[in-house]
């Protein structure tokens, strides 16, 4: 991939965006919002972990990538924080669920060792990479008719997740590198993300009236199966002793997005149709 670049894009997350911002898949709107809800707290947690590790890294290339990773993650946190603020104003009680995540991560910084926190960061980055690839590959199903600002933000975040997919793993390997700790970190990241997404997703769906609808619950079950069918096999790659994130073949649409941005094109409003134009109508499997 190309050099890691921090792109300061602003998508205008405001009250004009519907909670059901993907109208053909409203359940996905809430699943994605629930996943993104933790990011304003997770991204600073990852940043602090990698900053703490920087003095222990001898490889200048990895150290350079860490600094770029930190800049990218800081920008991601701000965009997702803006959307959280919209949801908090719209759904009283949302901020309490945010505080649960913030408290857990604050406690982790105090009580968990740096190797564990780096393993957790690496595991969560692997999870985020796969979710980002899933969303882009399933765009015809998940994003048809979706709010253009949301599509654009997801595409931007996905592209940068792909761009820096190896950084957290390389840092963990440089500082600790233990296989068992790597597996523990992935397991902890997976379980905590499930817990966070579950709590916030059900809160949003209940507040929005979808949880009371049998058809909506059925679509949610189908979406969860579809996502887990994608994620679970990928964990087998991460669990290989010889694993490295560079072994993944990235979606073609991501390399196309990066090229479009480099050429200076406006990517602040996107649709499935525009994504198809970007990708040339084809996507490689991750």
Which helices and strands, and how do they pair?
Layout: H1 26-37, H2 39-53, H3 60-90, H4 94-111, H5 114-137, H6 139-142, H7 148-163, H8 167-175, H9 179-207, H10 214-238, H11 252-262, H12 272-279
Describe this structure in words.
By secondary structure, the protein is mainly α. It has one domain. It is 71% helix and 0% strand. It is built from 12 helices and no strands.
Structural class: mainly alpha
Average predicted confidence as pLDDT: 93
| Strands, count | 0
| Tertiary shape | globular
Which stretches of 5+ consecutive residues score pLDDT under 50? 282-286
**Biggest sheet record:** none
How much helix, percentage-wise, in residues? over 70%
The number of domains is: 1
Distance between the termini: 14 Å
Could you give a short description of this structure?
By secondary structure, this protein is mainly α. Helix content is 71%, strand content 0%.
Features:
globular; disordered C terminus; 286 residues; mainly alpha
């Amino acid at each position: 991939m190309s050099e890691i670049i921090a792109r300061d894009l602003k998508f205008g997350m405001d009250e004009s965006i519907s909670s059901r911002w993907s109208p053909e898949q409203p359940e996905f709107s809430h699943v994605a919002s629930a996943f993104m809800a933790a990011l304003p707290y997770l991204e600073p947690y990852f940043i602090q972990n990698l900053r703490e590790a920087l003095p222990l890294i001898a490889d200048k290339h990895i150290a350079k990538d860490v600094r770029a990773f930190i800049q990218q993650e800081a920008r991601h946190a701000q965009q997702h924080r803006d959307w959280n603020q919209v949801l908090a104003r719209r759904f009283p009680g949302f901020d309490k669920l945010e505080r649960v995540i913030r408290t857990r991560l604050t406690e982790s910084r105090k009580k968990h060792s740096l190797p564990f926190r780096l393993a957790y960061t690496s595991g969560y980055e692997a999870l985020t990479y796969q979710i980002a690839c899933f969303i882009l590959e399933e765009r015809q199903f998940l994003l048809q008719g979706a709010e253009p600002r949301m599509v654009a933000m997801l595409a931007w975040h996905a592209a940068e997740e792909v761009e820096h997919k190896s950084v957290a793993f390389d840092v963990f390997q440089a500082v600790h590198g233990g296989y068992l700790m790597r597996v523990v970190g992935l397991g902890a990241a997976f379980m905590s993300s499930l817990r966070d997404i579950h709590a916030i997703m059900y809160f949003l769906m209940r507040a929005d009236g979808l949880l009371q609808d049998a058809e909506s619950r059925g679509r949610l079950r189908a979406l969860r199966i579809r996502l887990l069918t994608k994620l679970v096999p990928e964990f087998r790659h991460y669990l290989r002793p010889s694993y490295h994130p560079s072994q993944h073949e990235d979606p073609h649409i991501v390399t196309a997005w990066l090229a479009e941005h480099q050429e200076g094109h406006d990517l602040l409003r996107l649709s499935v149709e525009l994504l198809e134009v970007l990708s040339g109508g084809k996507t490689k499997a991750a």
